[in-house]
């Protein structure tokens, strides 16, 4: 394969990733009694739900986002009542993030919508294609 053909294929992969990302952004806005969650806010809430006590620093690393962006998202989630901050007694600069009862209830109510969004994104794929996609996405994420 020539270098030019390889470059075109890589650009196409990047273009399709971008288009998939845009499709998900368009579909992923979740409304609850507490407020509307963006996709990024939903990811943050899900991470905190799965691992209570996470710090913003951990979330910044996992999302590979700027500190200010994550700080704004976390503060919005606190203001809307999804999560609460608990100061680290050993390091006053750090806060541990935990779900509120209302946030946990809202996340549970959103579960069917989240599953529906996921199904809509991959509805044209058979089971083997879905497995291959997941394996590929895991490889990309690890890098």
UniProtKB/TrEMBL annotation:
SUPFAM superfamilies, sorted: Winged helix' DNA-binding domain (SSF46785)
Pfam family, one: MarR_2
Keywords tagged on the record: DNA-binding, Transcription, Transcription regulation
Domain of life (superkingdom): Bacteria
Keyword match Transcription: yes
Record keyword Transcription regulation present: yes
UniProt xrefs under InterPro entries: HTH_MarR-typ, WH-like_DNA-bd_sf, WH_DNA-bd_sf
Domain HTH marR-type: 1-142
Protein name: HTH marR-type domain-containing protein
